[in-house]
Design goal:
By secondary structure, the chain is of the alpha/beta class. The chain has 15 helices and six strands.
Length: 271
């Protein structure tokens, strides 16, 4: 548990943009992941036993990533109590750097700092229609979308190798799939990521929300984000559960284990 909490990025969204771009300048690649509380429960990340080989590998991949961002109020709550009771963590309170808000923020900030055509985007998602829709949307926002591909085939790395050259490009790949599949696929292709000098974000269902924001009858399966006032009230997860219970119940159910985790790990201090 302690190593996961210590790995969580403890600063603001604005500093995160600086740190990611600085790491990219120095290292020439970045691997960046999110984690929310339901994943901690589903993948048994705090357990020291009863873990499958895949769960052990997944935890190792998270700890090896350059950045691990906290997503959601449940994880924020657990971290805040842990910081008070157990260790001197880097901060007493985490910002909610969720992928649905931070990815658009990062892209907009990067576009402000560099001319937009220097940013080269690669989109990798499951449904071909959504990948193509997001390509259109990003292109309308003046992003240089080099390539978009569905998940049902291995990524065509030649499209990265042979893409049009730009002086000092910033190569950004958004990989959207479920956990832990997306993170494990990133790790299996780490050498290619380094060779192609990519900033890689594992973004889960982000493309669904992007496509839904430009609603189209052809993509009715995508899920819209909650209105801003619901997000400010921290009720977005509840709204998703109500509007699409089949898709969101498992996540909400896992989050409901938060009191048990607080009792076991923070009050009784068991591993």
């Amino acid at each position: 548990m302690k190593e996961i909490l210590e790995k969580l990025y403890p600063y603001s969204a604005n500093k995160a943009v600086d740190d990611i771009l600085n790491t990219y300048d120095n290292q020439k690649y970045v691997v960046w992941n999110f984690i929310y509380f339901a994943v901690i429960e589903q993948q048994k990340l705090f357990y020291s036993w009863k873990k499958t080989t895949e769960q052990k590998e997944y935890k190792k991949y998270l700890l090896n990533s350059d950045f691990l961002f906290p997503d959601g109020i449940a994880l924020q709550t657990f971290y805040k109590i842990a910081a008070k009771r157990l260790w001197n963590l880097k901060t007493k309170k985490l910002d909610n750097l969720n992928w649905t808000d931070f990815i658009p923020y990062f892209l907009d900030e990067a576009k402000k700092r560099y001319w937009s055509q220097r940013l080269k985007l690669y989109l990798y998602w499951s449904k071909p229609e959504i990948a193509e829709e997001c390509k259109k949307i990003y292109s309308k926002k003046w992003f240089n979308v080099i390539y978009a591909q569905d998940w049902f085939s291995w990524f065509d790395w030649e499209n990265v190798d042979n893409s049009s050259t730009t002086e000092n490009p910033i190569n950004i790949m958004l990989i959207a799939r479920w956990t832990p599949t997306q993170e494990m696929r990133v790790q299996k292709n780490l050498s290619k990521i380094k060779n192609n000098k990519l900033i890689v974000f594992t973004v889960w269902w982000l493309f669904d929300f992007i496509a839904a924001s430009w609603w189209n009858e052809k993509i009715q399966w995508v899920q819209k984000r909650a209105p801003k006032f619901i997000r400010k009230m921290k009720f977005e997860r509840l709204r998703r559960l109500i509007t699409d219970p089949k898709r969101n119940w498992k996540k909400v159910k896992s989050t409901l284990t938060l009191p048990m985790y607080i009792l076991k790990y923070l009050l009784l201090k068991k591993e």
